[in-house]
Amino acid sequence: MADPQWRPSTRAPLLWAVNAALMWIPVFVAQLVWAVVDGTATSWPHVGVFAASVVAALAHVAVVPQWRYRVHRWEISEDAVYTRTGWFTQERRIAPISRVQTVDTERGPIDRMLGLATVTVTTASSAGAVKITALDNAVADRTVADLTRIAGRNLGDAT
């Protein structure tokens, strides 16, 4: 079977980088509080933990989003929704159109700033919903319309 052909938006790495950076803020705030309370900000434990945090944060913000972008793919056909996700552990999902129950669009605050959306295809599956992340708004809207049209023609019962 061939891999799904479509990538997320070219702005997806920026979205993932911003989300990663926001995740590191509490870590650095906690280190700052620790240094102030301890009163020895330049001691080796503080400097070592800070240096390790900077290296990990830079990798998470600069490398991981690019890696994820190279892996993430999606595609819809008349028969199924296909996704490939992950950056370290990769997952491929195939959801038959006959199993589609709902199609939702989600746009968080950062998504809206970047003009992006996530399409969630809920199926009658114990594996959970299939998510197509970081799509341009127009692509997400078109994908939802296409999935709704295709699923409406299908005679399956989505159970």
The shape is elongated
**What is the number of E strands?**
6
Note the quaternary state here: single chain
User: How would you characterize the largest beta sheet?
Assistant: 3 strands, antiparallel
How helix-rich are the residues, as a percent range? 40-55%
Please state roughly what percent of the residues sit in beta strands, choosing from under 5%, 5-15%, 15-25%, 25-35%, 35-45% or over 45%. 15-25%
Strand order of the largest sheet: 1-2-3
Domain YdbS-like PH: 69-142
Protein name: PH domain-containing protein
Pfam family, one: bPH_2
Transmembrane segments: 12-37, 43-64
Protein described:
The protein is an alpha+beta fold and 159 residues long. 49% of the residues lie in helices and 24% in strands. The protein has a 3-stranded antiparallel β-sheet. A 3-stranded antiparallel β-sheet has the order 4-5-6. The relative contact order is 0.16. The model has no long low-confidence stretch (mean pLDDT 92).
State the gist of this model:
The chain is α+β, with helices and mostly antiparallel strands and 159 residues long. It is built from 4 helices and 6 strands, in the order H-H-E-E-E-E-H-E-E-H.
Topology:
Elements: H1 12-38, H2 44-71, E1 73-76, E2 80-85, E3 91-96, E4 100-106, H3 109-114, E5 116-123, E6 130-136, H4 137-153
Features:
159 residues; alpha+beta; three-stranded antiparallel sheet; 4 helices; 6 strands; 24% strand; elongated; PH domain-containing protein; transmembrane helix; YdbS-like_PH
